[in-house]
């Protein structure tokens, strides 16, 4: 991500800026998210692809040496053992470009985040009754 570049208007435009091999990985990640959260809305937020479903669901981004996946702190915490082989921070996982993406794990994390957001939305709705 280059801060001097204009914000892409779509995820397709975002992906187009990367070398073909990285585009392929980013598209794989995008498809895994779409399949795990078909009701989520795809958008650009913070100059990167994002999926929204009752609030922020997950983000992802391409970098020189890795793909950043942002499933929020709860998504990292819930899968910390399985993510232990990757560089992680409080809300970020870094998947190296020279290894296949763990699509099964990504799918499970996204489904976890969907359930989490749905539960929060229901709880919020319930307090308004």
Provide the fold topology.
Layout lengths: L10 H6 L3 H17 L4 E5 L2 E5 L3 E7 L3 E5 L1 H7 L8 E2 L4 E4 L6 H25 L2
Antiparallel strand pairs: 1-2, 2-3, 3-4, 4-6, 5-6
Would you kindly provide a written description of the structure presented here, covering whatever features stand out?
The mean pLDDT is 92. With 129 residues, the protein is an alpha+beta fold. The chain starts with 10 loop residues before the first helix and ends with a helix. The chain is globular and about 45 Å long. The chain contains 4 helices and 6 strands; from the N terminus they run H-H-E-E-E-E-H-E-E-H. Helix 2 (20-36) packs across helix 4 and helix 3 (72-78) packs across helix 4. It has a 6-stranded antiparallel sheet. It is 43% helix and 22% strand.
């Amino acid at each position: 991500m280059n801060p001097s570049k204009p914000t892409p208007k779509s995820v397709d435009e975002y992906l187009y800026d990367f070398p073909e091999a990285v585009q392929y990985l980013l598209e794989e990640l995008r498809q895994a998210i779409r399949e795990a959260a078909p009701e989520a809305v795809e958008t650009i937020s913070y100059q990167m692809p994002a999926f929204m479903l009752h609030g922020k669901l997950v983000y992802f981004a391409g970098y020189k040496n890795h793909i950043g996946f942002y499933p929020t702190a709860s998504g990292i915490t819930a899968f910390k053992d399985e993510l232990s082989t990757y560089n992680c921070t409080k809300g970020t996982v870094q998947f190296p470009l020279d290894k296949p993406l763990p699509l099964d794990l990504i799918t499970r994390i996204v489904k976890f985040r969907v359930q989490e957001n749905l539960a929060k939305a229901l709880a919020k709705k319930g307090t308004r009754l």
